[in-house]
Amino acid sequence: MATARFPGKSVDVAAVNWTPPALGRPLCVNGTPWILYLLEECVDNVWEYCSVVIGLISMFCFLLSTLPQVYEAYRNGKVEEAMSFGFLFFLFSGDLTSFAGCYLTSQLPIQIVTVVFYIFTDLILISQFLYYKIKNSSSRKSPVLKWLCFMWCSAATLVLLALPKLIIDNSVSLDTQSPTTSKSVEITGYICGYLASIFYLCSRFPQLYKNFQRQSTEGTSYLLFALAMMGNGTYGLSVIVVLPALRGSKQTFIIKHLAWLIGSLGVLILDFFVTAQFVMYRKNNSAKSSMLLRVPEVEPLLCEEEELSLL
Protein backbone atom coordinates (compact mmCIF):
# COMPACT_ATOMS: atom_id res chain seq x y z
CA MET A 1 0.00 0.00 0.00
CA ALA A 2 1.38 3.38 -0.95
CA THR A 3 0.37 6.86 0.03
CA ALA A 4 -0.44 9.48 -2.55
CA ARG A 5 2.32 11.73 -1.33
CA PHE A 6 4.79 8.98 -2.20
CA PRO A 7 2.70 6.87 -4.58
CA GLY A 8 3.94 3.45 -5.52
CA LYS A 9 1.99 1.06 -7.67
CA SER A 10 -0.30 -0.18 -4.92
CA VAL A 11 -1.94 -2.79 -7.14
CA ASP A 12 1.41 -4.51 -7.85
CA VAL A 13 0.95 -6.93 -4.96
CA ALA A 14 -2.48 -7.96 -6.15
CA ALA A 15 -1.21 -8.27 -9.74
CA VAL A 16 1.70 -10.49 -8.72
CA ASN A 17 -0.34 -12.74 -6.43
CA TRP A 18 -3.51 -12.87 -8.54
CA THR A 19 -4.46 -16.04 -10.40
CA PRO A 20 -7.31 -16.29 -12.92
CA PRO A 21 -10.45 -17.58 -11.17
CA ALA A 22 -12.41 -20.53 -12.36
CA LEU A 23 -15.51 -19.88 -14.45
CA GLY A 24 -18.43 -18.70 -12.30
CA ARG A 25 -16.21 -18.28 -9.23
CA PRO A 26 -15.89 -14.88 -7.47
CA LEU A 27 -12.73 -12.91 -8.19
CA CYS A 28 -11.68 -12.58 -4.55
CA VAL A 29 -12.93 -15.46 -2.40
CA ASN A 30 -10.74 -15.17 0.72
CA GLY A 31 -10.03 -11.45 0.52
CA THR A 32 -10.82 -8.91 3.26
CA PRO A 33 -14.19 -7.33 2.30
CA TRP A 34 -13.57 -3.77 3.52
CA ILE A 35 -10.20 -3.57 1.75
CA LEU A 36 -11.73 -4.97 -1.44
CA TYR A 37 -14.51 -2.39 -1.28
CA LEU A 38 -12.37 0.62 -0.30
CA LEU A 39 -9.12 -0.03 -2.19
CA GLU A 40 -10.12 -2.59 -4.82
CA GLU A 41 -7.36 -4.94 -3.63
CA CYS A 42 -7.67 -8.65 -2.94
CA VAL A 43 -5.87 -9.12 0.39
CA ASP A 44 -5.95 -12.73 1.58
CA ASN A 45 -2.94 -13.05 3.93
CA VAL A 46 -1.67 -11.37 7.08
CA TRP A 47 1.34 -9.70 5.43
CA GLU A 48 -0.73 -7.87 2.84
CA TYR A 49 -3.31 -6.99 5.51
CA CYS A 50 -0.64 -5.41 7.74
CA SER A 51 0.79 -3.56 4.75
CA VAL A 52 -2.60 -2.05 3.88
CA VAL A 53 -3.36 -1.02 7.47
CA ILE A 54 0.10 0.56 7.93
CA GLY A 55 -0.26 2.28 4.56
CA LEU A 56 -3.62 3.75 5.59
CA ILE A 57 -2.03 5.04 8.82
CA SER A 58 0.68 6.64 6.70
CA MET A 59 -1.91 8.28 4.45
CA PHE A 60 -3.86 9.53 7.49
CA CYS A 61 -0.69 11.09 8.98
CA PHE A 62 0.01 12.95 5.74
CA LEU A 63 -3.61 14.13 5.54
CA LEU A 64 -3.31 15.75 8.98
CA SER A 65 0.29 16.97 8.71
CA THR A 66 -0.31 20.45 7.26
CA LEU A 67 -3.40 21.30 9.33
CA PRO A 68 -1.47 22.21 12.55
CA GLN A 69 0.68 24.65 10.55
CA VAL A 70 -2.43 26.24 9.01
CA TYR A 71 -3.78 26.83 12.53
CA GLU A 72 -0.40 28.05 13.84
CA ALA A 73 -0.13 30.55 10.98
CA TYR A 74 -3.66 31.80 11.67
CA ARG A 75 -2.95 32.14 15.42
CA ASN A 76 0.50 33.70 15.08
CA GLY A 77 -0.09 35.96 12.07
CA LYS A 78 3.65 36.14 11.27
CA VAL A 79 4.02 33.11 9.06
CA GLU A 80 6.34 34.91 6.62
CA GLU A 81 8.90 35.28 9.41
CA ALA A 82 8.72 31.64 10.49
CA MET A 83 8.20 29.65 7.30
CA SER A 84 10.52 29.52 4.32
CA PHE A 85 8.82 30.14 0.99
CA GLY A 86 11.27 27.66 -0.52
CA PHE A 87 9.87 24.98 1.79
CA LEU A 88 6.31 25.72 0.64
CA PHE A 89 7.32 25.95 -3.03
CA PHE A 90 9.15 22.61 -3.11
CA LEU A 91 6.39 20.93 -1.09
CA PHE A 92 3.79 22.18 -3.58
CA SER A 93 5.97 21.14 -6.54
CA GLY A 94 6.40 17.69 -5.01
CA ASP A 95 2.66 17.25 -4.60
CA LEU A 96 2.02 18.39 -8.19
CA THR A 97 4.51 15.91 -9.65
CA SER A 98 3.24 13.25 -7.26
CA PHE A 99 -0.26 13.94 -8.57
CA ALA A 100 1.00 13.56 -12.15
CA GLY A 101 2.61 10.25 -11.16
CA CYS A 102 -0.66 9.07 -9.61
CA TYR A 103 -2.59 9.89 -12.75
CA LEU A 104 -0.13 8.51 -15.30
CA THR A 105 0.42 5.22 -13.41
CA SER A 106 -3.36 4.73 -12.88
CA GLN A 107 -3.38 4.82 -9.10
CA LEU A 108 -6.47 3.99 -7.08
CA PRO A 109 -9.26 6.61 -6.76
CA ILE A 110 -8.61 7.03 -3.03
CA GLN A 111 -5.00 7.98 -3.78
CA ILE A 112 -6.01 10.56 -6.39
CA VAL A 113 -8.50 12.15 -3.97
CA THR A 114 -5.85 12.19 -1.24
CA VAL A 115 -3.17 13.87 -3.35
CA VAL A 116 -5.71 16.49 -4.45
CA PHE A 117 -6.29 17.21 -0.75
CA TYR A 118 -2.53 17.64 -0.30
CA ILE A 119 -2.46 20.19 -3.12
CA PHE A 120 -5.39 22.01 -1.51
CA THR A 121 -3.62 22.29 1.87
CA ASP A 122 -0.46 23.46 0.08
CA LEU A 123 -2.45 26.24 -1.59
CA ILE A 124 -3.87 27.25 1.80
CA LEU A 125 -0.36 27.46 3.30
CA ILE A 126 0.98 29.46 0.36
CA SER A 127 -2.08 31.76 0.43
CA GLN A 128 -1.59 32.34 4.16
CA PHE A 129 2.08 33.09 3.59
CA LEU A 130 1.39 35.68 0.86
CA TYR A 131 -1.58 37.17 2.75
CA TYR A 132 0.33 37.85 5.97
CA LYS A 133 3.42 38.98 4.06
CA ILE A 134 1.39 41.64 2.23
CA LYS A 135 -0.64 42.51 5.33
CA ASN A 136 2.34 42.87 7.68
CA SER A 137 4.36 44.88 5.16
CA SER A 138 1.52 47.37 4.65
CA SER A 139 0.87 50.17 7.12
CA ARG A 140 -2.85 50.30 6.31
CA LYS A 141 -5.50 47.62 6.67
CA SER A 142 -6.96 46.67 3.31
CA PRO A 143 -10.39 44.95 3.25
CA VAL A 144 -9.83 44.22 -0.44
CA LEU A 145 -6.98 41.89 0.48
CA LYS A 146 -9.28 39.79 2.68
CA TRP A 147 -11.91 39.55 -0.05
CA LEU A 148 -9.32 38.55 -2.65
CA CYS A 149 -7.95 35.86 -0.34
CA PHE A 150 -11.47 34.60 0.42
CA MET A 151 -12.43 34.48 -3.28
CA TRP A 152 -9.18 32.72 -4.19
CA CYS A 153 -9.65 30.03 -1.51
CA SER A 154 -13.31 29.54 -2.50
CA ALA A 155 -12.45 29.16 -6.19
CA ALA A 156 -9.61 26.74 -5.40
CA THR A 157 -11.95 24.68 -3.19
CA LEU A 158 -14.60 24.38 -5.92
CA VAL A 159 -12.03 23.40 -8.56
CA LEU A 160 -10.37 20.82 -6.32
CA LEU A 161 -13.73 19.30 -5.33
CA ALA A 162 -14.60 18.71 -8.97
CA LEU A 163 -11.11 17.66 -10.05
CA PRO A 164 -10.99 14.08 -8.65
CA LYS A 165 -14.21 13.10 -10.44
CA LEU A 166 -12.96 14.46 -13.78
CA ILE A 167 -9.58 12.75 -13.41
CA ILE A 168 -11.06 9.38 -12.44
CA ASP A 169 -13.42 9.51 -15.43
CA ASN A 170 -10.60 10.46 -17.81
CA SER A 171 -8.24 7.82 -16.42
CA VAL A 172 -10.33 5.16 -18.17
CA SER A 173 -8.95 6.41 -21.48
CA LEU A 174 -5.39 5.65 -20.30
CA ASP A 175 -6.27 1.98 -19.79
CA THR A 176 -7.60 1.64 -23.37
CA GLN A 177 -4.38 2.87 -25.02
CA SER A 178 -2.04 0.66 -27.05
CA PRO A 179 0.60 -1.30 -25.07
CA THR A 180 3.46 0.86 -26.41
CA THR A 181 1.73 4.12 -25.52
CA SER A 182 0.63 2.76 -22.15
CA LYS A 183 4.21 1.72 -21.33
CA SER A 184 5.62 5.15 -22.21
CA VAL A 185 2.91 6.84 -20.13
CA GLU A 186 3.73 4.60 -17.17
CA ILE A 187 7.46 5.36 -17.50
CA THR A 188 6.63 9.08 -17.53
CA GLY A 189 4.61 8.54 -14.35
CA TYR A 190 7.55 6.91 -12.59
CA ILE A 191 9.82 9.75 -13.73
CA CYS A 192 7.34 12.10 -12.06
CA GLY A 193 7.72 9.94 -8.94
CA TYR A 194 11.49 10.52 -8.90
CA LEU A 195 10.95 14.26 -9.43
CA ALA A 196 8.46 14.33 -6.56
CA SER A 197 10.99 12.66 -4.27
CA ILE A 198 13.65 15.22 -5.26
CA PHE A 199 11.24 18.09 -4.56
CA TYR A 200 10.31 16.66 -1.15
CA LEU A 201 13.98 16.28 -0.25
CA CYS A 202 14.75 19.84 -1.38
CA SER A 203 11.84 21.23 0.66
CA ARG A 204 13.55 20.66 4.00
CA PHE A 205 16.80 22.54 3.28
CA PRO A 206 15.28 26.08 2.99
CA GLN A 207 13.40 25.56 6.27
CA LEU A 208 16.50 24.21 8.02
CA TYR A 209 18.43 27.27 6.88
CA LYS A 210 15.60 29.61 7.91
CA ASN A 211 15.53 28.13 11.42
CA PHE A 212 19.32 28.33 11.67
CA GLN A 213 19.33 31.93 10.47
CA ARG A 214 16.74 32.98 13.06
CA GLN A 215 18.10 30.65 15.76
CA SER A 216 14.44 29.93 16.46
CA THR A 217 11.53 27.73 15.38
CA GLU A 218 8.85 30.10 16.69
CA GLY A 219 5.85 30.34 14.39
CA THR A 220 6.22 26.84 12.97
CA SER A 221 4.24 23.86 14.24
CA TYR A 222 6.30 20.81 15.16
CA LEU A 223 3.25 18.62 14.45
CA LEU A 224 3.77 19.36 10.76
CA PHE A 225 7.14 17.60 10.83
CA ALA A 226 6.20 14.99 13.46
CA LEU A 227 3.23 13.75 11.43
CA ALA A 228 5.35 13.81 8.26
CA MET A 229 7.93 11.64 10.04
CA MET A 230 5.23 9.19 11.08
CA GLY A 231 3.84 9.15 7.54
CA ASN A 232 7.23 8.55 5.93
CA GLY A 233 8.22 5.90 8.46
CA THR A 234 4.96 3.95 8.16
CA TYR A 235 5.10 4.18 4.35
CA GLY A 236 8.53 2.53 4.26
CA LEU A 237 7.32 -0.09 6.72
CA SER A 238 4.23 -0.83 4.60
CA VAL A 239 6.45 -1.60 1.60
CA ILE A 240 8.85 -3.81 3.59
CA VAL A 241 6.09 -5.74 5.38
CA VAL A 242 4.49 -6.91 2.13
CA LEU A 243 7.70 -8.48 0.77
CA PRO A 244 7.18 -11.94 2.40
CA ALA A 245 3.77 -12.18 0.67
CA LEU A 246 5.15 -11.64 -2.84
CA ARG A 247 5.21 -14.67 -5.11
CA GLY A 248 6.84 -12.74 -7.94
CA SER A 249 10.14 -10.91 -8.19
CA LYS A 250 10.91 -8.96 -5.04
CA GLN A 251 13.61 -7.04 -6.92
CA THR A 252 11.11 -5.75 -9.48
CA PHE A 253 8.73 -4.72 -6.70
CA ILE A 254 11.49 -2.78 -4.89
CA ILE A 255 12.63 -1.08 -8.11
CA LYS A 256 9.08 0.14 -8.80
CA HIS A 257 8.89 1.61 -5.31
CA LEU A 258 12.50 2.81 -5.14
CA ALA A 259 11.79 6.45 -6.06
CA TRP A 260 9.29 6.90 -3.26
CA LEU A 261 11.34 4.89 -0.77
CA ILE A 262 14.33 7.19 -1.39
CA GLY A 263 12.12 10.25 -1.00
CA SER A 264 10.31 9.06 2.13
CA LEU A 265 13.38 7.78 3.98
CA GLY A 266 15.45 10.80 2.90
CA VAL A 267 12.83 13.25 4.17
CA LEU A 268 12.53 11.20 7.37
CA ILE A 269 16.26 11.68 8.03
CA LEU A 270 16.09 15.41 7.29
CA ASP A 271 13.11 15.78 9.63
CA PHE A 272 15.29 14.44 12.45
CA PHE A 273 17.52 17.49 11.89
CA VAL A 274 14.42 19.72 12.05
CA THR A 275 13.49 17.99 15.32
CA ALA A 276 16.98 18.72 16.65
CA GLN A 277 16.46 22.40 15.81
CA PHE A 278 13.18 22.46 17.72
CA VAL A 279 15.02 21.02 20.75
CA MET A 280 18.04 23.34 20.48
CA TYR A 281 16.04 26.53 19.92
CA ARG A 282 13.39 25.74 22.53
CA LYS A 283 15.05 28.09 25.07
CA ASN A 284 15.08 30.92 22.52
CA ASN A 285 11.39 30.38 21.83
CA SER A 286 10.49 30.40 25.53
CA ALA A 287 12.62 33.51 26.13
CA LYS A 288 10.81 35.41 23.37
CA SER A 289 7.43 34.28 24.68
CA SER A 290 8.25 35.38 28.23
CA MET A 291 9.39 38.79 26.97
CA LEU A 292 6.10 39.26 25.14
CA LEU A 293 4.17 38.31 28.27
CA ARG A 294 6.09 40.84 30.38
CA VAL A 295 5.37 43.81 28.10
CA PRO A 296 1.78 44.40 29.33
CA GLU A 297 3.02 44.29 32.93
CA VAL A 298 5.50 47.15 32.39
CA GLU A 299 3.04 49.59 30.84
CA PRO A 300 0.83 50.10 33.96
CA LEU A 301 3.95 50.74 36.06
CA LEU A 302 5.07 53.44 33.65
CA CYS A 303 1.63 55.04 33.76
CA GLU A 304 1.68 55.09 37.58
CA GLU A 305 5.13 56.76 37.59
CA GLU A 306 3.90 59.45 35.20
CA GLU A 307 0.85 60.16 37.42
CA LEU A 308 3.05 60.51 40.52
CA SER A 309 5.40 62.89 38.72
CA LEU A 310 2.45 65.07 37.72
CA LEU A 311 1.23 65.21 41.33
UniProtKB/TrEMBL annotation:
Primary location group: membrane
Membrane spanning residue stretches: 46-64, 85-106, 112-132, 144-167, 187-203, 223-246, 258-281
Protein's membrane topology: Multi-pass membrane protein
Cellular localisation: Membrane
GO MF assignments: L-lysine transmembrane transporter activity
Organism superkingdom: Eukaryota
Keyword annotations: Membrane, Transmembrane, Transmembrane helix
Keyword Transmembrane helix attached: yes
GO CC list: lysosomal membrane
PANTHER family in the record: SEVEN TRANSMEMBRANE PROTEIN 1-RELATED, SOLUTE CARRIER FAMILY 66 MEMBER 1 LIKE
Family under the similarity heading: Belongs to the laat-1 family.
Listed name of the protein: Lysosomal amino acid transporter 1 homolog
Species of provenance: Seriola lalandi dorsalis
